[in-house]
Write a structure and sequence with these properties.
Layout: H1 4-10, E1 16-19, E2 23-27, E3 37-41, H2 53-74, E4 78-82, E5 92-98, H3 124-142
Antiparallel strand pairs: 1-2, 2-3, 3-5, 4-5
Helix pairs in contact: 2-3
Bound molecules: zinc ion.
Length: about 140
């Protein structure tokens, strides 16, 4: 099976910031939005209809943890969440922090048109990933 997301687990894990039994969380490399995380199921499946009971039960606490970490690290005005599974048919949810200074054109559904380049700079990526990892570790210890 050829799946880009499954392949990510085997290769470069430099942008991974948290994992548990059912979910992996990584920082997106698609845009320059710092704190843009992607929550991915460990097991290959298309969507929540194909997720197991255990994966569904774990999803709520996991996405809650991820959103708290985004709020604490980048202080966004909103956090957008959505799952499309079009270009990568493997269950994953986008968590996109939207700052108060976001231009009107990209607010709400406009976020889909947000430019993919430039991405977060190579220098900034390890820093934002380290901050996210530390925050997620702290939050998961608190429970
Ligand atoms: Zn997959």
């Amino acid at each position: 099976m050829h799946c880009t997301i499954c392949k990510l687990y085997e290769n470069d894990r430099s942008t991974f910031v948290y994992e548990n039994e059912h979910w992996l969380l990584r920082h997106s490399t698609e845009t320059n939005l710092e704190g843009y995380l992607i929550l991915e199921s460990r097991r290959h499946c298309l969507d929540f209809a194909e997720a197991s009971e255990a994966e569904l039960a774990s999803y709520g606490p996991t996405i809650g943890l991820a959103m708290k970490a985004i709020k604490n690290v980048v202080q966004p005005y909103r956090i957008y969440t959505f799952s499309l599974a079009e270009s990568m048919p493997h269950l994953h949810v986008h968590l996109i922090p939207r700052g108060e200074d976001m231009p009107r054109a990209w607010i709400g559904r406009g976020i889909m048109a947000y430019p993919l380049t430039p991405a977060v700079s190579g220098a900034a990526m390890p820093q934002i990933c380290a901050r996210m990892k530390a925050e997620l570790k702290k939050l998961s210890l608190i429970g």
